[in-house]
Amino acid sequence: MVNKKIFVLIILIFLILPGIVFAQGIIKGKGDIVIKQNEEVRGDIRLGEGNVTVYGRVLGNIIVLKGNINLKNNSFVGGDTITYNGKINIEEEAVVLGRKIEFIRESDREINIPQIFLTGQGFLLKIVLALFIFLISFLFNAFIKKVISETNAFLKKNFIFILLTGILLFTIFVYNIPKEALFPFGKVLYLIYLLSIIILVSVGIPSLVNFLGESFSKIFKTEIEDNLIKDLVLSIVGTTIILVLIIIPIIGNIFLGVFCSTSFGLTLFYSLYKIFKSQ
Fold it and tell me: How many independent structural domains does the chain possess?
């Protein structure tokens, strides 16, 4: 009699437990989760590490910290599908009523740079960077001399403020790059954010190079009458100073960070200055 009761109890547990689990959702630390075609989850699916594959119905959200979300044909998700380090693979006839959010993978943040550029604390990479700095500095000096002169004057007048504030803001912006899935237009906003930082740094470079070149030239009291040759010399001198500083072992990367921060701050604050001045 007792054995029959235990047997019936076990049968009831097997029949009722899946319904209870699905009614409240599924929470799992590690491993794959598969929702079969005839199954329905009435809550959220939360998975730490692994893949979630859905053939049936999920009425809540699917959230995966590390892994992929695979939604097969005729599957249904009533909430959001979110993965922080993975992909969302949706077949044509799958239905998702909520948002589909893929946060950027950590591996996608890494830029694959050939090893030859990274040896010796990135010496060769810094040489290439110096050539790029020289090129844009010379072109800016040659074609938009007036703008460079104005930003140069602005830099001289506000150097300490631009240096300190630029370092602070640049550090905040770079170390707090938002996830790729800033909805509703995640990848677009992410790319705009990165592009804005690159532009702010790049546009300020010519003025900073010109500022360093002029400062160094004044020490030796050299005057060049030909404007083109003067622009060329200032670009070479300014770029050389930057290159010498950034290739110094150990502290070279600190100088590179300060250089980028100052260039970032110069572009940002000069742009704001021009905007408010015009109003």
Answer: 2
Where are the alpha helices (H) located in the chain, listed in sequence order?
Answer: 2-24, 106-109, 115-143, 145-157, 159-175, 186-220, 227-246, 252-278
State which amino acid sits at residue 164: L
pLDDT tens-digit profile of 136-194?
888 887 788 888 888 888 988 998 999 899 888 888 877 665 554 444 455 667 777 78
Q: What is the pTM of this model?
A: 0.56
Q: Which 3 state secondary structure label does DSSP give 34?
A: strand
Q: Position of tokens 């690159």?
A: 198
Domain boundary among 74, 104, 134: 104
Q: For residue 231, what are the contacts with CB-CB under 8 A and spacing of at least 6?
A: 138, 141, 142, 145
The last residue of a domain, from among 69, 84, 104: 104
Alpha-carbon distance values, 153 to 19, 144, 174, 214 (Å): 73, 15, 27, 12
Determine the Cα–Cα distance for residues 180 and 187; give it in Å rounded to an integer.
Answer: 5
β partners of residue 33: 52
